[in-house]
Amino acid sequence: YYHLSFCMRKTVAILQKYMISTMETKAYMYVLECTDGTLYTGYSTDVQKRLDVHNAGKGAKYTRARLPVKLLYQEEYPDKSSAMSAEALFKQKTRQEKLAYIETQKNAQH
Asked: pLDDT, tens digit, for every residue of 33-78?
């Protein structure tokens, strides 16, 4: 490392810093059941914290009028982008399809 020029060492340091800062943390798609029985789907890197925000009335407008909410399901993804994509696909399903998917996934884990 020391035989490299100052510019090369600087470039390596910048690249290392960039790699660390761009490493994504795990993210989750989650499904809440609202007090009126409806479902709400979102994504977060910290589901429990997000659930607490929803129940404090500071989450999505949809859930604010349907408190309290409870966590029905969560699914882990390697990064935020993947969780967001999963959320978008999940939201396209009908209620029955969503509930069937959740049941299938829960059964597969046992």
From this structure: 999 999 999 999 999 999 999 999 999 999 999 999 999 999 999 9
Cβ partners under 8 Å of residue 86, min gap 6: 29, 43, 75, 77
pTM over 0.85: no
Q: What is the dihedral of CA 87, 108, 93, 60, to 10 degrees?
A: -40
Tens digits of per-residue pLDDT, 3-35?
A: 556 666 667 677 666 655 555 589 999 999 999
Strand partners, 44: 28
Residue identified by tokens 């510019």 is 7
CB 88 within 8 A of CB 51: no
84 CB-near residues (< 8 Å, 6+ apart): 27, 43
Helices (H), the chain: 6-22, 47-55, 61-64, 80-91, 95-109
Check if the beta carbon of residue 77 is closer than 8 Å to that of residue 105. Answer: no
